[in-house]
Design goal:
The protein has 766 residues and is mainly beta. The protein has 9 helices and 46 strands. Strands 24, 25, 26, 27, 28, 29, 31 and 33 form an 8-stranded antiparallel sheet that branches.
């Protein structure tokens, strides 16, 4: 018994094919050559149509290969295909029918291949005559290891093939697929909510599957890949205030999968958006708890230095040129008896006779004891305590802060006869210049004997002249009267050890506004020496600047309204800005890390790598380069590391944007460390952990320590607070101008371990 499948094809066209109702006997029936219910107009034309034919049995694959006449397919969803020949050259379709087979390859029962029609057959689309038609068997219709028979019948839109094609034998033999190996690693890749999964070499995974907090598993294609990345959807809000979900703790399960099943899962526990998983960090600085009551450092309390540090691009065009020290004696004339008086040159400590060294050490020790009894106060001669005590302990030294410069020299005074020393005395001479922050400055000269030969009858020194070089705006004080000395500059015996001191005021004209002037000061001493029974007094002149001059004494005065009033500083002395590390440890630790680890060690005095001030930082353009990603600090910052509920993450860049060292300052504008983006810098963030706040590198962003800059997502209050004293308390008071050098003292130190690519420290304030 047969029934007909009627299928509507186009407008008014119907097809029908006689198919088996399910009995084994019906497998031998032929398709109906005359479709039922097809009558009326066009019947004659259809009757005259050539009937399509499929002379061969269908092919089955992949891989479309046979063994002993049986098609072998390695999938439960094979493709069935057969070639149709139509005598009229019409296009045609094929209907495919599949039966299970017994051991003798006899049909047993028909397989329902489709749920879209009651006959369970698959019908192909139209193809040209001589071309193969094909259908794909849906999943779940065939079973692995089962033998099947397949046949097809053609239809050209007008007539059906009068019989089925020959049977084709095929067997489904899907190879056993082993479950793939699990992922080798799973970690946040540095971007909020994103994780990267690394896969083992030669893996057989088709997919990486991931599950967040027990939700449904999701798939990512893994065929042919060594790693895959997916986004969990956890991100920081643009406002910097994360959603409750993003702040919570999470568990991420990740596994691999293929047709053989899924691997064991790898679990990652994290909080927030994943960037703070605390994974494989190559930087881990444990920070001290902030002391919100810590007083800010006095930025004007500068430590004296002997280091000469010139502004970027110095020397300035209108700056006087320092004379090279001749380091030779300055002598008076030789009289008719062969007598002559000479000074110097100044001698280094190891050039002095042993007895003079002992005396000089004793004087310095006594001066330091006096200073210790009254620390911070000026010495009796009005000099700063560190100038009066000679902090280096050397016999020839120069030290300065931004506002005070001090030079010490130990000079021999000779009375010569016929060119040979007859009597020698040694004097310690100190000059201090103190800039008063106005249109005046003070010079103090101290002279004290260290050792005088008994052969001397008298040695007298008076101030012959005092003068400026550089500009006429500086008014020379000229000669100082004898009575201006405190302690007369006259010594008449070897036992006379009193000191002589002279205080002089220099002035300069500040009537020209928005100007800068460079000055040097110098003076000449007139000495009169008399020794033993030699006849007459011998005169000798000594000019301070001709004996080992120092560029520390270069004075820059200006009338710029930026600083509020006219004033002066020592231009070749770089001042030091000091962080309040106890109060703002996050910012201090970030700068400390970069000073320690980067090759350019910016702002470190001991390495002579100053920062150079750039007022305004190109109106914020430098910061825009380094902190260039929209909301970067909010993406990577940890709210748990904030100071309080009103605090928000902030991008802290180093070197500072208001410096020529800034990574945002282009080379064309004298930038020293230019980069195209802050992504080229060391990237860190402050993270609250169980034992306190740590400064960590952002996951997936390990530094190479070849970078020239850094940016860190830290507390906004720590970032701004650490620099709050810079503009008014430091730059303005110490007259820091464009291109001026300065140092940064972070106030931090660390107990560190640096091995196996991990830099780990416990930080403390110093």
């Amino acid at each position: 018994m047969t029934v007909a499948i009627a299928t509507l094809l186009g407008t008014g066209a119907q097809t029908a094919i006689a198919l088996d109702t399910g009995s084994a006997a019906a497998a031998h029936e032929k398709p109906s050559a005359t479709p039922p219910h097809v009558f009326g107009a066009g019947a004659a034309a259809r009757a005259a149509n050539g009937i399509p034919n499929t002379p061969k049995g269908p092919e089955v694959g992949p891989p479309f290969t046979q063994a002993s006449g049986v098609w072998q397919t390695n999938t439960e969803t094979p493709t069935l295909r057969n070639t149709v020949i139509d005598p009229d050259g019409d296009t045609a379709t094929s209907t495919f029918e599949v039966w299970t087979a017994d051991a003798a390859w006899k049909p047993v029962s028909k397989v329902k291949l489709s749920d879209t029609n009651e006959y369970g057959v698959l019908v192909s689309g139209y193809v040209a005559s001589g071309k193969p038609t094909s259908v794909d068997v849906p999943k779940g219709k065939l079973k692995n290891g089962v033998s099947y028979l397949v046949r097809s019948s053609a239809y050209d839109g007008k007539a059906y093939e009068s019989d089925w094609s020959p049977w084709s034998k095929f067997k489904v033999a899907v190879p056993v697929v082993e479950k793939p190996a699990k992922p080798t690693s799973v970690a946040n890749n540095g971007k909020p909510g994103e994780f990267t999964v690394n896969l083992p070499a030669g893996h057989k995974a088709k997919w990486v599957e991931w599950q967040l907090d027990g939700a449904a598993w999701k798939q990512v294609d893994a065929v042919g890949k060594t790693s895959v990345t997916f986004d969990t959807g956890l991100r920081s809000a643009d406002t910097g205030l994360r959603s409750a979900a993003a702040r919570a703790s999470h568990t991420l399960n990740v596994r691999t999968a293929n047709d053989g099943g899924a691997s064991d899962a790898v679990s990652v526990a994290f909080s927030g958006n994943g960037t703070s998983t605390g994974g494989d960090h190559s930087v881990d600085l444990k920070l001290p708890d902030p002391d919100t009551n810590s007083p800010n450092p006095d930025q004007s309390a500068q430590v004296p230095t002997g280091l000469i540090t010139q502004p970027l691009g110095a020397p300035v065009s209108n700056s006087p040129t320092a004379r090279k020290a001749p380091l030779k004696e300055q002598c008076g004339p030789v009289d008719k008896n062969g007598a002559q008086a000479c000074f110097g040159p100044s001698l280094a400590f190891d050039e002095l006779p042993p007895k003079v060294q002992q005396k000089l050490k004793a004087q310095q020790k006594q001066a330091k004891r006096k200073a210790a009894r009254a620390p911070g106060l000026r010495a009796a001669n009005g000099m700063t305590d560190w100038c009066a005590t000679n902090p280096s302990g050397q016999s020839r030294a120069a030290f300065a802060t931004r506002t005070v410069e001090c030079e010490s020299k130990t000079l021999p005074a000779y009375y010569k006869m016929d060119g040979k020393p007859y009597a020698t005395a040694y004097f310690s001479m100190t000059r201090e210049i103190s800039l008063d922050g106005t249109t005046t400055w003070t010079q103090r000269v101290n002279i004290k004997p260290v050792l005088i030969s008994p052969l001397f009858r008298a040695i007298e020194m008076v101030m012959k002249d005092q003068f400026c070089t550089g500009h006429t705006q500086c008014k020379d004080p000229g000669k100082a009267p004898y009575e201006d000395w405190d302690g007369k500059p006259l010594w008449t015996s070897a036992a006379d050890t009193h000191e002589a001191n002279l205080k002089t005021t220099f002035t300069w004209d500040d009537t020209e506004k928005e100007r800068t002037f460079d000055f040097r000061t110098d003076f000449r001493i007139a000495g009169i020496l008399q020794a033993g029974n030699t006849p007459g007094l011998q005169d000798v002149g000594y000019q301070w600047g001709m004996d080992d001059p120092s560029d520390l004494e270069m004075i820059r005065c200006d009338t710029k309204k930026t600083f509020g009033k006219s004033g002066c500083i020592f231009v070749n002395v770089a001042p030091t800005y000091t962080f309040n590390a106890a109060k703002f440890p996050q910012a201090a630790a970030h700068a400390w890390l970069l000073q320690q680890k980067l090759p350019n060690t910016m702002g470190v005095k001991t390495r002579n790598t100053p920062l150079y001030y750039l007022p305004g930082g190109r109106n914020g353009k430098n910061r825009a380069v380094v902190c260039d990603e929209d909301g970067w600090a909010n993406k990577y910052g940890d709210l748990g590391a904030m100071q309080d509920a009103t605090d928000k993450p902030n991008c802290d860049e180093f070197a500072f944007n208001a410096s020529y060292n800034s990574a945002g300052q282009p080379k064309s504008e004298d930038g020293l460390n230019p980069v195209a983006s802050g992504s080229e810098c060391v990237q860190t963030f402050a993270k609250k952990q169980a034992d306190g706040v740590h400064l960590l590198n952002i996951d997936g962003m390990k530094p190479t320590w070849k970078e020239v800059c850094g940016r860190s997502a830290i507390s906004g209050k720590h970032n701004s607070g650490s620099m709050s004293a810079f503009s008014a308390g430091f730059a303005k008071k110490l007259r820091l101008d464009d291109r001026d050098p300065y140092w940064l003292e972070t106030g931090m130190s660390g107990d560190c371990e640096d091995k196996n690519g991990v830099f780990k420290c416990t930080m403390k304030t110093s």
